[in-house]
Amino acid sequence: MRIIRVKNYDDMSRQGANIVASLITLKPNCVLGLATGSSPEGLYRELVERYQRGDINFCQVKSVNLDEYVGLSADSEQSYRYFMHHHFFKYINMKPENIHIPCGKNEDAEQECRRYDELLQSLGGIDLQLLGLGMNGHIGFNEPDEIFTTGTHKVKLTESTILANRRFFAKEEDVPRFAYTMGIRDIVHARRVVMLVSGETKADIVRQAFFGPVTPHVPASILQFHQNFTLVADEAALSEI
Ligand code: F6R
């Protein structure tokens, strides 16, 4: 595990973007595993700027997103597909057929999860998986559990996650209760994992996840065993270690 300690959110975004941009330069047809949420927003902004300056080109890049709410359609403003489009995809030259996100509107969970697992396999694995860290230690929507999950599955969101995501919805009842998420196995199989964490509110869970025991009760802790895991965190997020 490598820790890159940065001053603040903006530095975290720049350092994270450096890592992603260097991969795209070295492997233009790479497979990126992408995340939504506040943590990677700045990184996406940075990548867009570099694309606009002509420093990186996404024409051969493929992407797979970690997760999507069940029940939200692609044009719903709270869906993760919408988030990705508005923060990233609409500004760059990725081919639409190379963009993959679980389909929240597919009510047949078994079929949707199988489709996504087969897709991950057909892409030959993920070169770089980008992650944020949930307040309860979740990665993707893999919530604290008795076991580490394997492939894509439908998950019931915990109260803590519903509360944390409440800020994106008009009222709490609107927050979906279920999501599709890639499993822990899919995440740890990525050849490289980069996690972005910023802010004091994450300091306690950073300590538990990376300086405590490896346990499915804190799903991110499994990354301690990953051979190529980089945590890019700011001083506030590292203040308890
Ligand atoms: C998002 C995702 C989640 C978030 C996590 C942190 O696709 O999979 O695990 O990364 O909830 O969210 P933020 O970055 O909003 O604090």
Describe the 3D structure:
By secondary structure, the protein is α/β, with parallel strands linked by helices. The protein is built from seven helices and ten strands. A seven-stranded parallel sheet has the order 1-10-9-6-2-3-5, with helices on one face. β9 (193-197), α7 (203-211) and β10 (229-234) form a beta-alpha-beta unit. α1 (9-26) crosses α2 (41-52). It binds fructose -6-phosphate. The site of fructose -6-phosphate has 14 residues, from loops.
Mean pLDDT: 96
**SS class:** alpha/beta
Cα shape: globular
**What is the beta-strand fraction?**
15-25%
Strand order in the sheet with the most strands: 1-10-9-6-2-3-5
C-alpha termini separation: 15 Å
What string, H for helix and E for strand, traces the elements in order? EHEHEEHEHEEHEHEHE
* Helix content class: 25-40%
Largest sheet: 7 strands, parallel
What is this entry, summarized?
The protein is an alpha/beta fold.
Main attributes of the structure:
three-stranded antiparallel beta sheet
Write the layout of secondary structure elements.
Blueprint: E1 2-6, H1 9-26, E2 31-34, H2 41-52, E3 62-65, E4 67-69, H3 80-87, E5 99-100, H4 109-122, E6 128-131, E7 153-156, H5 159-165, E8 178-181, H6 184-188, E9 193-197, H7 203-211, E10 229-234
Parallel strand pairs: 1-10, 2-3, 2-6, 3-5, 6-9, 9-10
Antiparallel strand pairs: 4-8, 7-8
Helix pairs in contact: 1-2
Residues 35-39, 66-67, 132-134, 138-141 line the site of fructose -6-phosphate.
